[in-house]
Amino acid sequence: TGLIAFDPGLGNTGSCESAITFIDGEKGILRYRGISLDALQNHPNFVEVALLLMFGKLPGKAQYQRFSTSLTNNANLDEDMKHHFAGFPRSAPPMAVLSAMISTLSCFHPEFLELEDATQVERAAARLISKVRTLAAYAYRRSLGLPYNYPDPTLPYVSNFLHMMFSEPYRQYSIDEDVVAALNMVLILHADHEQNCSTSTVRMVGSSGANLFASCAAGVSALWGPLHGGANMAVIEMLEAIHKGNMTAQEYVALAKDRDSPVRLMGFGHRVYRNFDPRATILREVSEKLLQRMGRKDPLLSIARKLEEIALQDSYFIDRKLYPNVDFYSGIILRAIGIPTNMFTVIFAIGRLPGWIAHWYEQKRQSDGKIWRPRQVYAGNRQSAYTARTERG
Ligand code: CMC
């Protein structure tokens, strides 16, 4: 093993060169293609950010228009694809449905399996980014036994998603621009985060030459885990448990610090940030502002603030440099919008999709693009004797 650098969890391995997202974890800085989150906050437009990440610069009018039209034209699902949904039980986890259905897109759109140039990538990206929200909305509606909502071609990206989620045959969902702006911001803040687990998975799968849909379906599976995208659901479950009086915020923090307990303070800590996750700071502001505009109070927001206050004064969290991450406040916003907890990680996936596509495309264009094939440090027996089954106990 002499020549192999051992780096469990790959925390100290640069797996690729990338020009998409810059993070300074010590200072708590995150920029997309060099543009700060603060600048994006003033104009929350997820589609624009998706194009920025995927193609390297903010889109001009023509590209923006072309891409938006393509999103509108591709929003519906092939009627045959809808039959697949009938095969899932109502209780199916929406992330399982999403991963399966993104894989299924490879079967329905074989024309996108070989992408030769930027024009083809743009078309495939529009199809995927558009359809993922229809798939997500239908997965939600199927879980409740509700009918499919056809996309409305007059609505922009985020509003159309809300319509597909919440309109009923007898009542059109009423679009609230504050909600639309908040959801745009949630999606933007999830859009890319360099070599996180799901993005590395997309690059890993893509490195073998696998197609865009297959690579992104793998990304959804990686995102599902509670230490990654699944944490946003776990945060709300934690806050609800405290709210129901099962334990106090102080007791929960004590449990999260106990090294004999598997409990962690969900939505806290990050492999890269050793300072405030700038996304958490923005999402806290967005959640407070949205609730205020809606004239609502959410007791879970007060509990989250309390937990943050306790943790940030506690030497356990201070010494380990554990701060709130992107998942700590996002659920408060999604709850206010009416999105159920089991859909939170799906929303993360919709947001992260442009980042996955950007990385898949960047890797495809890299001339030294090699198949990813990490090494290991073998820790088993070098040689063992074979015993015939009849002679084994
Ligand atoms: N609560 C309590 N202790 C923690 C926490 C936490 N949330 N996070 C880390 N620690 C402790 C951990 O026990 C370890 O302590 P010790 O050094 O005494 O063994 C130390 O801090 C370092 O933790 P680690 O697990 O080695 O750090 P990591 O970089 O491997 O893990 C993490 C990063 C995000 C998985 C972890 O902080 C965690 O599990 N957080 C809670 C889950 C969460 O919020 N995940 C979302 C991450 S951000 C968005 C995303 O990626 O989807």
UniProtKB/TrEMBL annotation:
Residues of the signal peptide: none
SUPFAM superfamilies: Citrate synthase
Reactions it catalyzes: oxaloacetate + acetyl-CoA + H2O = citrate + CoA + H(+)
Gene Ontology CC entries for this record: cytoplasm
InterPro entries: Citrate_synth-like_lrg_a-sub (IPR016142), Citrate_synth-like_sm_a-sub (IPR016143), Citrate_synthase (IPR002020), Citrate_synthase_AS (IPR019810), Citrate_synthase_bac-typ (IPR024176), Citrate_synthase_sf (IPR036969), Citrate_synthase_typ-I (IPR010953)
Pathway(s) the chain acts in: Carbohydrate metabolism; tricarboxylic acid cycle; isocitrate from oxaloacetate: step 1/2
Pfam family, one: Citrate_synt
One Gene Ontology term from the biological process aspect of the record: tricarboxylic acid cycle
Catalytic residues (UniProt): 270, 327
One function term, GO molecular function aspect: citrate synthase activity
Keywords: Acyltransferase, Transferase, Tricarboxylic acid cycle
PANTHER family membership: CITRATE SYNTHASE
Family the entry assigns: Belongs to the citrate synthase family.
Protein name (database record): Citrate synthase
Species lineage: Bacteria, Pseudomonadati, Pseudomonadota, Gammaproteobacteria, Chromatiales
Gene: gltA
